[in-house]
Write a structure and sequence with these properties.
The protein is mainly alpha-helical. The chain has one domain. The protein has 14 helices and 5 strands. Helix 1 packs across helix 10. The radius of gyration is 20 Å and the shape is globular. The two termini are about 25 Å apart.
Length: about 350
């Protein structure tokens, strides 16, 4: 999913689940920051304290994307949670929608209310869980299971102009953004980049309005993928989880029953538009439509990188008050829990 869902959609679902604005903002910011947190260097502080980064993504131009160990530390726990289906290890690493592992991860994180970084952890949970509804059928390591036939795409109920737009984006993707081809001129690097995650289907899994199908390189047919229905299912599950949070995070007059909210969210998901247009649609429905009980602005997304470097002149106690530190705590806990506890419980030793 992209920022329209990870931030704006998450904020609206959280508000409709009865959370207060600040709690909803923190959860939604953390959910989107999983994709934006590509810091490479930590900081040393004036009092000899230090803060080391916990990267949860890499920019497209980062060669780290093809490093096998890095794939297992970043892409697997944060973007392609293994579904544990199949016989071989690489098959079991393929992400599956709303898998038992994903549900167990959510339940664990929801039980961490005593932690100071609880809301940031819930944002990471929301991102990882959401990606199982978008990235299913692909894995976070370079694998032949991820390779697709480039000219096998079909679309249903898609506006002609929108189809031309997204196909054009697909055709230009590797030439414009593929860092491996651009920075490492080798057949092996090109093969690895095309077989990592959902690179072969570019942003199609992340577009909420898309109904589509394709063929894997192995000959398997993906079947029709109905993103609007799948994303709506995710929103329902997230709404249910957040509805059960402790009272200190809530503003109950904002709470809506899912039976009331469902059609409103479905309308937003079905909107066909580029990323900025989809963001504007969430904003419009929150401010001018009937999406929320109280018409309101959605706070603009602000990532937590701003001002972080300035903390080098601060003390450790001051720096720990910065939101990015709580996010790093949450990311460190999530990575450890998934790789060292959750996946081994299911017989998967990824890292």
């Amino acid at each position: 999913m992209q920022i329209d869902m990870h931030y704006y959609g998450t904020f609206c679902v959280a508000r409709a689940a009865g959370l207060n604005r600040e709690s909803a903002r923190i959860i939604a910011t953390a959910a989107q920051f999983v994709d934006d947190n590509a810091q490479q260097n930590g900081i040393d502080l004036a009092d000899a304290s230090a803060c080391r980064v916990e990267a949860t993504a890499h920019h497209t131009a980062d060669v780290s994307n093809i490093d096998p160990d890095d794939q297992r530390q970043v892409w697997v726990p944060f973007h392609f949670l293994p579904g544990n289906e199949g016989s071989s290890f690489t098959e079991r690493l393929v992400c599956r929608k709303d898998s038992e592992i994903a549900q167990q991860m959510c339940q664990n994180h929801l039980e961490q209310a005593a932690k100071s970084y609880f809301l940031e952890l819930l944002g990471i949970m929301a991102h990882v869980y959401a990606d199982t509804f978008a990235h299913y059928g692909f894995s976070g390591v370079s694998s032949r299971h991820n390779k697709v036939v480039n000219d096998s795409f079909e679309f249903r109920d898609l506006d002609e102009k929108m189809e031309a737009y997204i196909v054009g984006k697909k055709d230009s993707f590797f030439a414009r953004f593929n860092p491996i081809v651009r920075n490492i001129k080798s057949h092996l690097a090109e093969e690895l980049s095309g077989a990592l995650g959902h690179g072969g289907v570019v942003t199609f899994p992340d577009r909420p309005y898309l109904k589509w199908r394709f063929e894997y390189d192995s000959g398997r047919d993906s079947g029709w993928r109905d993103n609007p229905t799948t994303f709506l299912e995710y929103c329902h599950k997230l709404h249910s989880m957040l509805s059960a949070l402790p009272e200190e995070y809530t503003e109950l007059e904002q709470k809506q029953d899912w039976t009331v909210l469902k059609s409103k969210v479905a309308k937003v998901l079905a909107f066909q538009g580029a990323g900025d247009a989809r963001i504007d649609n969430w904003k419009h429905e929150a401010q001018c439509g009937e999406l929320l009980n109280i018409a309101e602005d959605i706070p603009e997304y602000r990532d937590w990188n701003d001002g972080f470097e300035a903390l080098s002149h601060s003390s450790g106690s001051e720096a720990m008050k910065h939101p990015i530190y709580r996010y790093y705590q949450a990311a460190s806990y999530h990575r450890w829990y998934v790789l060292r506890e959750l996946l081994p419980q299911h017989g998967l030793m990824v890292s």
